[in-house]
Write a structure and sequence with these properties.
The chain is an alpha+beta fold. Among the domains are: about 140 residues, Butyryl-CoA Dehydrogenase, subunit A, domain 2 (Beta Barrel), CATH 2.40.110; about 150 residues, Butyryl-CoA Dehydrogenase, subunit A, domain 3, CATH 1.20.140. A hairpin with a 6-residue loop joins strand 14 and strand 15. The longest helix has about 30 residues. It starts with 10 loop residues before the first helix and ends in a 46-residue tail after the last helix.
């Protein structure tokens, strides 16, 4: 393709696509580019654990992690083999499990490489091994799980108790005479639901959440280390039934029951929140059984960070695939006989720029939240847990929307599993439900924000007509105004006198604006992280980051322009100008979309990053002889514009 073939109206795109494309040879993480701009952008995106990101990027770029068309059971077996490849690449599994930046870095690269393997790794290293490390473990031999001689899993959710797991029915009754626990599933509704407890993958153990019963007293829910299987099969008293296949990650989901399984006293995972002596005496620093339970399953909060990282990695890959596709795929231009890249069309690149801006904001928000999680003191833990939950919901939902956009912009080829979008889109649904269903954890966060967990920022004292829609600080103030509007509305609904004496009716009246508050809160925090990021890069990069922030913030402001106008935070003229301001920033960003996307460092040879989507395939034999590859009706002619 020559510059002339792009047409006279697409000089900026031609300049970027043909003269300034960042190739693998120029990617700093891989080849050590020392340009100031590249180094600053790399630090911005990967500052938390540069080496960790590089390790996984290189491992998951190898042929071993390429796409395989296999039957479900064989595909699950492949996920377990890949899990052991990952284990061999981890220098210190204990350190990995204890580090939020390291764990989330693994998820960011494992998710796009193999959703099934990533799910298994998340369960083993975070939920299982992490739970063991978070409790008293000095006298426990962890080597079988550190070496992955045995695989760990985590059993909490029950068939009839998901988001209300605090009401679970599985029991662990202490027998003082034998100094053993008796782990039991009392009925079908108490079957542990979904974990990977089949024989696939080798011998397994689990940490099982169960009610601790001592002399008939219910002391709350704790975790119990429970052997599930060995080389010969499931152990006595352990009943496992495979569940139907899901549409997402290839994992051996199962329903698991225990029939009076005896466990030693050492099986209970203990800590300050609850200890039981061999004689059966219980002590705890916490008076509330509910809080003891939440402390026992504290790894679920870390899991939210991991699920967010998983979605971020899949989202960045989807954008890379879509942008590379749009930059190389030719279609009709506005002049007869002139063909241009898909990306030359505003209708094609504008949705991708929106996706890019959201993903930059999500990445930097996630980096910020991981840092806050790492340094939080005990007194700050509740607030940080809420922040983690809000972030997880927003990022995983945004990933669904972004990947849908990217899939559509790749046309029919976006449906191919080898392209790394369609399959990831289905797998991402698991992150929306895992470690706390998004809607449920947002409802909880909404209640906390209304009940004193949040103080809205007061409105700016400067009149809106004196401020510019191109000023990032003003846009952040407008997003804070949106927060305040929904906070006030939800509080007013909650105080409504018409439903006094009926708590459910009061909450039902307030929950819709309260959820809008949570969404507005997440948007403001993401915008804040993105705008602050501009201060950590070179002047040239900062201009692009501020443009991304402007696009991200303008979309949020436009979506709530009616409320902002009614609240006198925008003027009528500013509302009319919003579409033009969006158009202006889109035009400014368009020449740089490929370069900004390459900052994600999605390798060309990662499954799904081939922009052409041309996979090697043998033609099927036909009884009627070879069929024409160009014959038939209903297909698009080469001269017709399309997104495929």
């Amino acid at each position: 393709m020559t510059h002339d073939q792009l047409g006279p109206t697409h000089d900026s795109l031609a300049t970027v696509t043909l003269r300034s494309v960042i190739t693998e040879r120029e990617i700093p993480l891989r080849h050590g580019s020392t340009s100031a701009s590249a180094t600053a952008a790399d630090h911005l995106l990967f500052a938390t654990r540069g080496e960790e990101h590089l390790r996984w990027r290189e491992l998951f770029s190898t042929e071993e992690f390429g796409h395989r068309d296999l039957p479900h059971r064989e595909r699950v077996e492949l996920s377990y083999r890949r899990l052991r490849t990952v284990a061999a690449a981890i220098p210190d599994p204990r350190a990995l499990a204890l580090s939020a930046p390291a764990l989330t870095a693994l998820h960011e690269w494992a998710g796009p490489a193999d959703p099934g393997m990533a799910t298994l790794a998340s369960i083993h290293y975070n939920l299982f091994l992490g739970s063991l490390l978070d409790h008293d473990h000095e006298e426990r031999d962890l080597e079988p799980w550190l070496r992955m001689d045995r695989i760990g899993t985590f059993l909490c959710t029950e068939a009839e108790h998901g988001n209300d797991a605090v009401n679970m029915e599985t029991t662990a009754e202490y027998d003082r005479a034998s100094r053993q626990f008796v782990l039991h599933t009392p009925g079908p509704g108490a079957a542990k639901w979904m974990p990977n407890t089949s024989l696939t993958g080798g011998p397994k153990d689990a940490v099982v959440a169960a009610r601790l019963l001592v002399d008939g007293r219910d002391l709350g829910i704790f975790l119990f280390l429970t052997p599930l299987s060995d080389e010969r099969g499931h152990l006595p008293g352990v009943s496992v039934e495979r569940l139907p296949h899901t549409s997402g990650a290839p994992v051996d989901h199962c329903a698991t029951r225990f029939h009076h399984v005896r466990l030693p006293h050492s099986a209970m995972l203990q800590g300050d929140h609850g200890r039981l002596s061999p004689e059966g005496e219980f002590e705890s620093t916490l008076g509330s059984p509910r809080i003891r339970f939440l402390r026992s399953i504290g790894r679920v909060s870390m899991g939210k960070l991991c699920m967010s990282g998983y979605s971020l990695g899949a989202t960045r890959q989807a954008i890379a695939v879509a942008v590379r596709h749009g930059s190389t795929r030719l279609t009709s231009g506005m002049t007869k006989g002139i063909r241009v890249p898909l990306m030359a069309h505003r209708s094609h690149h504008e949705p991708l720029l929106d996706a890019l801006a959201t993903t930059y904001a999500a990445t930097l928000l996630h980096r910020s939240v991981v840092r806050q999680w790492e340094v939080a003191e005990e007194a700050e833990r509740e607030e940080v847990d809420r922040l983690v939950a809000v972030t997880k919901g927003w990022i995983t939902w945004a990933a669904r929307e972004t990947m849908t956009t990217c899939r559509e912009r790749c046309g029919a080829k976006g449906l191919l599993l080898t392209q790394g979008i369609a399959g990831q889109l289905a797998a991402n649904e698991g992150t929306i439900t895992a470690e706390g269903d998004n809607k449920v954890i947002w409802v909880k966060a909404a209640g906390e924000l209304l009940m004193g967990g949040f103080t809205p920022k007061p409105p700016s004292e400067t009149a809106p007509e004196q401020r510019s829609l191109r000023d990032g600080t003003h846009l952040q103030d407008l997003m804070a105004d949106v927060e305040r509007i929904w906070h006030e509305r939800a509080r007013t609904r909650l105080r409504s006198g018409g439903v006094r004496g009926n708590p459910m009716a009061r909450w039902n009246g307030a929950v819709t604006p309260a959820l809008e508050l949570v969404a507005a809160h997440a948007h403001r925090l993401a915008g804040e992280a993105l705008l602050e990021g501009a201060d950590r890069v070179t002047a040239e990069e900062a201009e692009h980051i501020r443009d991304l922030h402007r696009l991200f913030a303008l979309r949020q402001v436009a979506a709530h322009s009616g409320e902002l106008l009614a609240g006198e935070r925008l003027t009528a003229e500013q509302v009319r100008r919003l579409p033009d301001e969006v158009e202006r920033v889109v035009a400014d960003l368009e020449p740089h979309i490929l370069a900004l996307t390459e900052r994600f460092f999605v390798p060309e040879n990662l499954p799904g990053s081939d922009p052409a989507g041309l996979v090697e395939a043998a033609p099927e034999a036909s009884a009627g002889g070879p069929e024409s590859l160009t014959g038939g009706t209903g297909g698009l002619r080469e001269s017709e514009p399309d997104a495929a």
